């Protein structure tokens, strides 16, 4: 690790960024601004990278080592080094150099929030009084941590926007989630029982903040808020799929009313669309949803990811041929779907990074094989290196399952619309798509195999 000297010419915006990736998944680190790649940084033989920016505007950036990413904030003339282990990405990140303190603060607050989230679900079952006491106590501790570090580091107002957002929106998200999750888990509807001032914090929120438009805590909060506000009360009047359609159209309508800034609104609409389109595969409903989305969205570019997703979904209709994607077998040979898609085939997905899932899904498949011997079960590994994939297979030694690895995650994501690890694709006795959007853990999954 190294750091640059702190003397700079006053008018220059020279900045440095570098570091080391332990156990890299691929040979690159991407440096991005608002989801656009600014620079592709190649790892050297020691898995290190380094670059100089002759002119880098102060602000929030992201660095990505696929499939993970994290934020890094640059003030004028910062020189930041980062060390990260891809096996434990977020927990391993340490910044050093000029600008290290504020970035280490952001990471520490992020990890505090993540640790707290793992405990939160049990509190959603609690009464309003007990729930409020718990989240208010946690918020008070984190606010003290924030104010102490702010006084100690003396960071800029521009950075404070993100620091305060990370603190506040995590707290606000819990408040939005509480009535929804409480009802799902306990059956108790608290909407009418909440204090009249429960949502008063919404009055303080700038729904058109462009600087925060790609910042995860802000975007996540707006999504939770719209889920809450978009709920249809008289849901018994609709089927499950029609209710999902009406709820998501309602959410987009509210977003269009609340958010006037095009960039912020488009990001939120895209977030709603991604979630909906990967959950509901009723093509008639999808078209109705898309017509509403196109009415509200101003993103008409060819790069629009929703358009890419919709095209993928159209290619995965019942009776279609599954599109070709790059797959290799355990010997390193390319595998063609033409040789793989026997009648009655089930594709399922896993990654070494989700150990509980990889174990559970293979056990589930082994059980299914005994009940449905006419099916060929194919496991597709994604998001891991070929080396890690093979090490995992050597460790577990799963039997009776065809194990393949996808060497290009972007292609399989775009062609097979893979955004969730629980997705399962089922082919019929002619080798054509029977259901491309099944969930192997769904209680009704076996009905798809009959």
Automatic annotation (TrEMBL):
<dbReference type="InterPro" id="IPR036249">
    <property type="entry name" value="Thioredoxin-like_sf"/>
</dbReference>
<feature type="domain" description="Thioredoxin">
    <location>
        <begin position="316"/>
        <end position="450"/>
    </location>
</feature>
<protein>
    <submittedName>
        <fullName>TlpA family protein disulfide reductase</fullName>
    </submittedName>
</protein>
<dbReference type="InterPro" id="IPR013766">
    <property type="entry name" value="Thioredoxin_domain"/>
</dbReference>
<dbReference type="Pfam" id="PF13905">
    <property type="entry name" value="Thioredoxin_8"/>
</dbReference>
<dbReference type="InterPro" id="IPR012336">
    <property type="entry name" value="Thioredoxin-like_fold"/>
</dbReference>
